[in-house]
Amino acid sequence: MLKRRWAIPLLIASLLSLSTLPAASASPPESPRPADAGAESSVPLPEIAARTTQVASGLRRPIAIAAPDDGSGRLFIAEKRGTVRVYHPDTGLAQTPLIDITAAVDESGNERGLLGIATAPDFPDSREVYLAYTALPDGAVTLARYDLDDARLEVLLSQEHATYSNHNGGQLAFGPDGHLYWSIGDGGGSGDPFDSGQRLDTLLGKILRIDVSRSCGDLAYCVPGDNPFAGVAGARPEIWTYGLRNPWRFSFDPADGSLWIGDVGQGRWEEIDRLRPAEQPGANLGWSCREGLVVFDEAQCGGGAELTDPVFTYSPRTGSCAVIGGQVYRGKQFADLVGGTYIATDYCSSTVWALRDDGAGGYLQAEIGQTPTQVTAFGATPEGELYVVNDLPGGLHRVSFERVAPTCRITQTANAWGGGLTANLTLTNTGTTPVSGWKLVFPLALGQTIISDWNTDLVQNGDMVTAANAAYNGTIAPGDSVEIGYLANHTGDTSAPERYTLNGHACTIGD
């Protein structure tokens, strides 16, 4: 017997977006702000600390989290080998997998395997789960629907991905419009060897948007008629956004429908993108013309394409390696601290990044803590509380936040001219104990290169600067300050650093 796929409002929406309609520039409807979406916090980011508490162990390379909105309080945790485990706060981690598709999954290579999971919007009725994985025998990146009642796996869509085993993407999420979104990497290798990012005739290097509530013709799904390339000759109509390298994890902000993407970089820049609903259809995020904000391959920059800038980039040169895109916090428990704040991390450095709209076209940013090693994914409960899973040794961790008193403050002045600038920094110990031996770490704006420095032992590595104490100013008593500075060249951007950490702790900026 056929199951009812969708709740009535979503069914109506589906019927209004037939795949035979011409292409349009429409965007997904902006979802109304949920009544329980949480407040927008105004607590300064350096006064927030992220903490994690391990709540389960024994997972085998957990890779993604889904939270069915069925009132059960359960989390579904996908494991790379092709199994899905169930965790409940009261009973812990169940030993018997809920789903086992290991016979269908190619987990050869570090980046292949079961990659993503999402529960259907009508999950309490349909009992359907959507899975993204690399399939046997050739590693094709595959989207399938799994029926929990009869353990049936139905393949919906696949993309050839045999040449290289990396850059498979794999995030799945239902958007505020009820359609399913799926990310696929650029095909792997190094430097986008297939030029996939800027091509529209392939699903590689894209985020897709499809209607899985029904089928159309020979397809096991339908292409929404307002997809930006529906009806465009030579283009894959499933494409929603393009110009991505390996969009390993993305999420939607339930308050305004914004799409947040963590796109793993080639080696110079990791980036986070935010697309509001009207900006999403057909957005070109730049790869492989650009990596972050910097030109990567000039040959891919032709055609006058309009590129969408990332809202945040960081260099992996201080121990990072791969951005793990997270979530905008919309829970209740910590709304006063991080309501409306985007939280992400990095697979290698475990740095917790916090980003918040500053109301003036930019974003406040800070490093607010550490996750466990090798986090692979964030997940949110239906109530908006956050969890993470980490790869090795394989655990589930609850994320919490607390307010802390910053232990340092930076005041900065700069004088720019022509192609140069001088910066003077006052570093104040605002804590209650002496700082003995210190390292101040901060990023420079693009194109700034330090020539000389004073009162510090300073090293620049890419855009990142580590300023360590000199022999004569290594101890800073509570309330005391040290003065340091540097002379730098610039290529036009003379802006001051936007974040500082002293011995790993975020500093406030300003008087």
UniProtKB/TrEMBL annotation:
Database matches in InterPro entries: 6-blade_b-propeller_TolB-like, CBD2, CBM2/CBM3_carb-bd_dom_sf, CBM2_carb-bd_dom_sf, Glc/Sorbosone_DH, Quinoprot_gluc/sorb_DH_b-prop
GO annotation (BP), single: polysaccharide catabolic process
Pfam families registered for this protein in UniProt: CBM_2, GSDH
GO MF terms, alphabetically ordered: hydrolase activity, hydrolyzing O-glycosyl compounds; polysaccharide binding
Keyword flag Protease: no
Keywords: Carbohydrate metabolism, Polysaccharide degradation, Signal
Entry protein name: Uncharacterized protein
Source organism: Streptomyces lincolnensis
Lineage of the species this protein comes from: Bacteria, Bacillati, Actinomycetota, Actinomycetes, Kitasatosporales
